Amino acid sequence: MWFRFISYLKFLAKSTNEHGVHSPFVFQYVTQCLYFGKRLHKKKSVDVLLKTIAYFNCKSISIDNQPTIKELIEQDFPKIQFDKHMVDLFFVNKLSAPSFQKILSEGKLHNDSLVLIDSIYTDHQNLEQWNQLIALPEVTVSIDMYHCGLISIRREQVKEHFTIRI
Predict the structure, then answer these.
(1) In what order do the strands lie in the sheet with 141-144?
(2) Is 144 inside any structural domain?
(3) What does DSSP assign to residue 123?
């Protein structure tokens, strides 16, 4: 409990809103997706997931063992395909650096693929895994939103990390 409280205070101290973002890609994502429109779900990470699917017009996604979230996505986005060889969006509860590199080596991610990781501040181990992920050279864009984190491998993007309040 103390870990989450203290980590949230640290997050608030270093986080910003759209005014602290200097990347056009991230600025548009924050202003036109995260901060735009009504809330789609009461859980913030699921709300981010649904908004991200709509904003990037994702065609194929992969979700790890979360049937209720999969059903919710199927209701809102009936044309979405799940677990294809190459996906636009991964949604996972936990992801270690070796697991991410395995996904990359298997060719499951393309240049514009996104990985959304739920609950990166649940405990010290999840936060450490998040920090190891964003340090990888393949990860060019990372957005820490406290409730979840988004990483991207956009090769045309300069490596940057953002801490955004949602």
Answers:
(1) 81-82, 60-63, 87-92, 109-118, 148-152, 141-144, 160-163
(2) no
(3) S
Q: Which of 85, 100, 87 is nearest to 135 (CA)?
A: 100
Domain extent at residue 128: 2-138+149-163
Task: Using alpha carbons, list the distances in angstroms from residue 2 to 6, 45, 76, 165.
Answer: 6, 21, 37, 20
The model's pLDDT over 59-114, given as tens digits with 9 standing for 90+, comes to: 999 998 888 999 999 999 999 999 888 999 999 988 889 999 999 999 999 999 99
Structure tokens at 24: 């056009």
- What is the tally of structural domains in the chain? 1
What distances in angstroms separate CA 126 from CA 2, 4, 97, 109, 114, one per listed residue? 15, 11, 11, 22, 19
R_g (Cα) of the chain, nearest Å: 15
Q: What's this model's pTM, rounded to 2 decimal places?
A: 0.90
